[in-house]
Specification:
Layout lengths: L1 E4 L10 H15 L4 E4 L9 H8 L3 E8 L5 E9 L4 E5 H5 L17 H12 L4 E5 L10 H6 L3 E3 L18 E3 L11 E5 L12 H5 L7 H20 L17 H9 L2 E3 L1 H9 L1 H4 L5 E4 L13 H11 L4 E5 L15 E4 L7 H6 L1 H29 L1
Parallel strand pairs: 1-2, 1-11, 5-6, 6-9, 9-10, 11-12, 12-13
Antiparallel strand pairs: 3-4, 4-5, 7-8
Helix pairs in contact: 1-13, 2-9
């Protein structure tokens, strides 16, 4: 059998390459003759740049940038195609996993480090950027990012408004004269599967703000602040509207990338799958195995695993989901996947499940292949007696 292992990471537990390795180990215990193509994936969040860079045989460059709550963090970007293309993750510079849960605060969190990481990639000579914008800690509308790239966001007195979501309420104007001139010639793709608008009940603040620590009062304050930023963009001649799908991604970074950096929004899952070689291997496959840490009703709505399933089924290849946990209407998952199972083996509590996760993931993959081989044997025996 030729089997593609094409999972997302198990967030907070295993990286996508580690998930691939565990799946491969289980498959080979069941069938040592199987060929396993390991294709670790991501959907625009953490791991996007690594998946693209490693698949292309590129190299990584480290950069010291401003963290989401100030201070310095070490982020990285990948260079591929002889350095012409850079791949970077917002999560590495301005990500929610860089902050402990009790310190989450979208009023303070800044996207400045993402802008600094973009500048570092330009300094390295990149002419095209692929930016994964999932997993952010910020709700500043890209204020910090564009400030790091030379835009001046000013208050009524003509002074810089500062950092974080709390600064949005001070915005009176955006001065574009100091913007990095390289932004006019670089091509930027933003990897993101979020289609939310910038403002309103389905916007950045209302939908994603609470995940980043926003109270209901903060949500209202931040939404009004993003509206002020939007009006300043329009007054500066940068935008005509604030209604494009994806503008609300990453606390409004989607809008800032589109409006200020002329970025094109692309499906993060599809972009990574193309760069990682998924479609090149797919015609050779007898089975595709995908997975993630937690599968629920949101998965079928366009998350990575469902995109893998959709594209596999288009090619006539069966697809199996091996997930850390199955939530919501689990039987409905069989509308998306040909097989779906949780790796949990009776542990009580998340910590216990995570402790045994690699063992259990390998066991689930082994069991799946054993079931396939058993089915072949049964059909063979049945055929002899028929």
């Amino acid at each position: 059998m030729n089997i593609i292992a094409a999972p997302d990471s198990f967030k907070g537990n295993m990286s996508a390459p580690q998930v691939c390795a565990a799946i491969e180990a289980g498959i080979l215990r069941a069938d040592a003759s199987a060929r396993v193509f390991k294709i670790p994936l991501a959907d625009g969040g953490e791991g996007t740049a690594r998946a693209i860079t490693e698949a292309a045989g590129g190299r990584f460059v480290k950069a010291a940038v401003t963290g989401p709550l100030g201070g310095t963090v070490e982020a990285e970007f990948g260079l591929i195609e002889n350095g012409r293309v850079a791949a970077l993750d917002m999560a590495g510079a301005s990500g929610i996993e860089l902050i402990s849960r009790e310190r989450l605060n979208p009023l303070k969190a800044t996207s400045r480090g993402t802008g600094e990481l973009i500048a570092a990639a330009l300094d390295a000579g990149a002419r095209e950027l692929i930016i994964g914008i999932g997993g952010s800690a910020t709700n500043d509308g890209g204020l910090g990012m564009i400030s790091a790239l030379g835009f001046r966001v000013l208050d009524a007195g003509g002074e810089p408004v500062g950092e974080g979501g709390e600064a949005l309420a001070k915005i009176a104007a955006v001065d574009i004269r100091g913007a990095d001139p390289r932004l006019k010639t670089v091509s930027i793709k933003a990897a993101c599967d979020v289609t939310n608008p910038l403002l309103g009940p389905q916007g950045a603040s209302a939908v994603f703000g609470p995940q980043k620590g926003a109270t209901p009062e903060m949500v209202e304050f931040l939404d009004a602040g993003l509206a002020r930023l939007g009006r300043a963009w329009i007054a500066a001649g940068l935008a005509k509207d604030l209604e494009q799908p994806g503008d609300g991604a990453a606390g409004g970074i989607g809008a800032a990338l589109r409006i200020c950096l002329n970025a094109a929004m692309e499906s993060g899952a599809m972009l990574v799958m193309r760069h990682a070689g998924f479609f090149r291997r797919l015609p050779e496959a007898d089975l595709v195995i995908t997975g993630e840490g937690m599968t629920d009703g949101q998965t079928a709505g366009g998350k990575l695993c469902s995109v893998v399933a959709r594209e596999s089924r288009k090619a006539g290849i069966p697809v199996a989901l091996i997930s850390g946990a199955l939530g919501g209407d689990a039987p409905a998952l069989l509308d998306t996947f040909d097989y779906a199972v949780s790796t949990a083996c009776g542990q009580i509590g998340l910590d216990a499940m995570m402790k045994d996760s690699r063992r259990d993931l390998g066991f689930a993959a082994e069991n799946l292949v054993r079931a396939i081989l058993l089915g072949k044997k049964i059909r063979g025996e049945y055929g002899k007696t028929a």
